[in-house]
Input
Amino acid sequence: MNTPPHRLVIAVSGASGSRYARLLLEHAIPFVPEIGLVVSRVAPQVIAQELDLPEGDLLAGLALPEGHRVTRHAIDDYRAPFASGSNVYDAMVVVPCSQGLIGRMAHGISDCLISRAADVFLKERRPLILVPREMPMSTLHLRNQLTLAEAGALILPACPNFYHRPQTVEEVMLTVVDRILSHLNLRRPGSRRWSEEAR
Ligand SMILES: Cc1cc2nc3c(=O)[nH]c(=O)nc-3n(C[C@H](O)[C@H](O)[C@H](O)COP(=O)(O)O)c2cc1C
Output
């Protein structure tokens, strides 16, 4: 894929870092006309713990441009379009991505809409970006991630960089979100890349 996605799946698991998902939605929505959003069974607990959002709604307060579609899909809704390879979505991001989900995806266990959609993206050879947040990692975590990388997924851990001296938690987190956007061929206005001035 070397053009921005027209149709994107954003999946949110029960790992810490739900704020990454919120930031990704905020910065992808203006550029991606159609987004399918799916939240795991555990994720609402984490969202409630980490973010002050009414009813843990990751979309609360975000402006949707006219004509834009963000569709929420229930975790067990296998009728979602991206649950089948016959319906083409351009890319999928799992952010944050729990190690439990990594394990299930690495073994093709399609026990929910997220793991099924990931299985579809892998079999169809479509871009699948996984943003794990765990430390330290066990041998199992590392093996599972290698399996997924070998199957075609991009493992993009939630590891911020500091070379532009971010001053706030949000600026730190945006260094991760900018890398996700970059792999989706998107660019956040104001983002900085190494050896570049701010845009
Ligand atoms: C507050 C909270 C924080 C968690 N943080 C992480 C984490 O950073 N990484 C991780 O792999 N699992 C984390 N977990 C555990 C996962 O939620 C758990 O393994 C769950 O089964 C994942 O299921 P899911 O991937 O379907 O959401 C956390 C759980 C809670 C309640």
About this structure: The helical segments are 18-28, 43-50, 99-106, 113-123, 139-150, 169-183. The chain is about 35% helix and 15% strand. Strands lie at 7-12, 34-39, 69-73, 91-97, 128-132, 154-155. The chain has one domain: 7-183.
